[in-house]
Amino acid sequence: MDELARGMASEAGFLYGFVNLFLESQTFVGLHQPPADSGHVIVGRTMSRDHGWCPEVMSRRKALPLADVHASPRFSSNEVADSVGIRSYFGAPLIHESGVVLGTVCVIDPEPRPLADAERIRDVTLSTTAQVMEHITGRTR
């Protein structure tokens, strides 16, 4: 899963990539982040279930593209935005064929993204969602 997170972050051009299962906490079973000596915040493998924007993705059951989190008052005040310094977020839900939302995949970055890039980045996260679900279920499309 780390490789899927790395590939997604790389293809999207983001510093961080996550494959996130909602267990007792948000659990990053796939994680890509900058090197420890990069000067960027290093995150752990878990986070509270109510931090970040992934809880919103889980609730709405569809992708959430935030090219600049500060452009939306609803999403600008957030523990992750404040503590990690995040300006852009693109996430999509991991929905099992039974209809249960298992978690999310997402990319985050300290730089805002031009709106012109939003569709491409959204497509990268959706493609990764399909790959993760294939891995989880053991099925290919």
Helix/strand layout:
Layout: H1 2-12, E1 16-22, E2 26-32, E3 46-47, H2 54-60, E4 64-66, H3 73-76, H4 79-84, E5 88-95, E6 101-109, H5 118-137
Antiparallel strand pairs: 1-2, 1-6, 2-3, 4-5, 5-6
Helix pairs in contact: 1-5
What is the share of helical residues? 25-40%
What do we call the CATH homologous superfamily? Answer: GAF domain
Number of helices: 5
Q: In CATH terms, what is the architecture? A: 2-Layer Sandwich
Q: Main sheet?
A: 6 strands, antiparallel
Content of β-strand: 25-35%
N-end to C-end Cα span: 18 Å
The strand order across the widest sheet is: 3-2-1-6-5-4
Secondary-structure element order, N to C: HEEEHEHHEEH
How many domains in all?
Answer: 1
Describe this structure in words.
By secondary structure, the chain is α+β, with helices and mostly antiparallel strands. It has a single domain (about 1-135), classed as Beta-Lactamase, CATH 3.30.450.40. It has 5 helices and 6 strands, in the order αβββαβααββα. The protein has helices at about 1-10, 55-60, 75, 80-85, 120-135; strands spanning about 15-20, 25-30, 45, 65, 90-95, 100-110. A 6-stranded antiparallel β-sheet has the order 3-2-1-6-5-4, sandwiched between helices. The chain is globular. The mean pLDDT is about 90.
Summarize, please:
By secondary structure, the protein is of the alpha+beta class. It has helices at 2-12, 54-60, 73-76, 79-84, 118-137, and strands spanning 16-22, 26-32, 46-47, 64-66, 88-95, 101-109.
